[in-house]
Amino acid sequence: MKAAVLQFPGSNCDRDMAVALRTSGVDVTMVWHKETALPDGIDVVGVPGGFSYGDYLRCGAIAATSPISGALKAHVARGGYAFGICNGFQVLTESHILPGALLRNAGLKYICRTTPLAVETTDSPYTRGYSQGQHIAIPIAHHDGNYTADVDTLDRLEGEGLVAFRYLDNPNGSARNIAGILSENRRVLGMMPHPERAFEAAHGNEDGRHFFSGLVDALVSA
Ligand SMILES: NC(=O)CC[C@H](N)C(=O)O
Q: Tell me, how does this one assemble (predicted)?
């Protein structure tokens, strides 16, 4: 199984994402933002966390117009798999690959801590490694994690079971406690918490491991 991990100037979770994927058995190629094509035979694209382009304009807004973003949009339009963590989620909403937007945290502060989540659906490659309703603890580190969308979109996401994760403590003011969502075809996921930072014993928490092992199981059997 092959993955591409995108790298923008200011990405800082790209190597963590690659380590989590590689440790899960995935062949990973790092792809610089100036590339206009993804490597051949890619099964999934990872859009990592960080501060792409210094968070200028809005988090993820400039990355959404970078050369590689055209290839990402084409990959998703073809039904390809992709996931964005934190700044990656912001890139996916700014690219209009996923609906809604990530606003400044309600408390106006950067928050860096581990937060409890509920797994809202197991019907996706990213969440199938968990059980329905399972409570997990995953680190967050962001200042713009306050998920918002219009009421119709929020109703649709909930009605179609496209909310992947919900905060149990809503640290940032997100609408309906949403921490992560899926695309309509369930092949694209965006989430603010960082499963790659809770991946191995040295992290003191391995709750993020099943995100990657579930993805590998799903795509190997796809
Ligand atoms: N860890 C991250 O990816 C942070 C995303 C973004 N820079 C924010 O602070 O909201």
A: Part of the FGAM synthase complex composed of 1 PurL, 1 PurQ and 2 PurS subunits.
